[in-house]
TrEMBL record:
SUPFAM superfamilies: Ribonuclease H-like (SSF53098)
InterPro entries per the UniProt record, alphabetical: RNaseH-like_sf (IPR012337), RNaseH_sf (IPR036397), Rv2179c-like (IPR033390)
Lineage: Bacteria, Pseudomonadati, Bacteroidota, Sphingobacteriia, Sphingobacteriales
Transmembrane annotation, as ranges: none
One Pfam family here: Rv2179c-like
Protein name (database record): DNA polymerase III epsilon subunit-like protein
Sequence ranges assigned to domain 3'-5' exoribonuclease Rv2179c-like in this UniProt record: 3-159
GO molecular function, one term: nucleic acid binding
Amino acid sequence: MAYIMVDIESDGPIPGDYSMISLGAVLVEEGLCQTFYGQLKPISDDYIPEALAVSGHTREETLTFDDPAKVMHDFADWLKRVCRDKPHFISDNNGFDWMFVCWYFHHFTGENPFGFSSQNLGSLYKGLVKDMFQNFKHLRRTQHTHHPVDDAKGNAEALLTLKKELGLKIKL
């Protein structure tokens, strides 16, 4: 199975009304050398300055980013190149990241290569340690910078640690 750790940055809380600004992904495997990065031009005039500020980009910068359809087609092509079989979506906050990626794939390409489900890294960790108050973020090695590739890599490092040190049965 191909697990793809995904992270996105946006300028608001929901897709459609607001925009995904950047998308990062990494194939979860030793070395974490297969990555994808895209910057997407806003699809809406609406944005929340505080939400956009998290990404480190200005509105003016985002207006020069790539057409979202191109980025989503490029992402789909990347998934086909790096995955031997169906890709599985996993992220730190899949409720947020998934809704943007799923919406953008359906809106701009007509289908979502991930299908209809996603996995949540935080929930997986809580189950492994049997404690709903624990957090996996101490297992990241790559600094959490809000650059989506950095953040996806840090989360992928944590997932690999769950396999190596906590005995997570996962086929990578």
